[in-house]
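Open question from group meeting: does this chain pack into something compact, or does most of it stay loose? Before anyone orders reagents, we agreed to write out a predicted structure and look at it together. Recording both the input and the output here so the notebook holds the full record.
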Amino acid sequence: MQYILVVKALDIYQTVISHYPHWSKIELIAVVIVMIISFIILERFYKKDKINKIQMFFCILFTIYLLHVYGSTVFSRLPSKRICKLEVFWSWKEILNSMNTTYPKYELFLENILNVIMLLPLGIFLPLVYGKKINWKVGLLIGFCISFSIELMQLVLCRGMFDVDDIIHNSLGFLIGIVITNKVLLMNKIN
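Structure tokens returned:
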């Protein structure tokens, strides 16, 4: 059993590594410009005592990770055809239908799990950026908006497939991150 878990963990690691695309010079320059602007804004907020050092640190992490997500899901992909998948839970239907076949769709299952994991760190960082708990409904809305913007850019720029399932999985991951951090913040207040 432990061997299977290790092999599956390595499969997930390999999937992450193989999906990590290289960025072009233009994309790297754009990221550097966004980061410089972010640092200037954060420094001004810090000097005006609107944020503390911890909030500033997590805001930087949030920004870096968000840029990485946009870069790896949209901007580092080559343009192709405009593809749209609007059926809700189509991927889970395919996974379940393939379970009784010779070739179950493990790759699709891994992709779904990775889509949940992708925005989870952003959900963890957001309450730390604000320095307080975030209502789960607000967290779900923010996660939905980030995920929808990724999918919309993929559709408009023809760099990936607009997929309703991806929006659901990404939003769920963001929400899980919010809930985890909210629980930790609540526990710290109790102690």
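Observations to bring back to the group:
The mean pLDDT is 84.
The radius of gyration is 19 Å.
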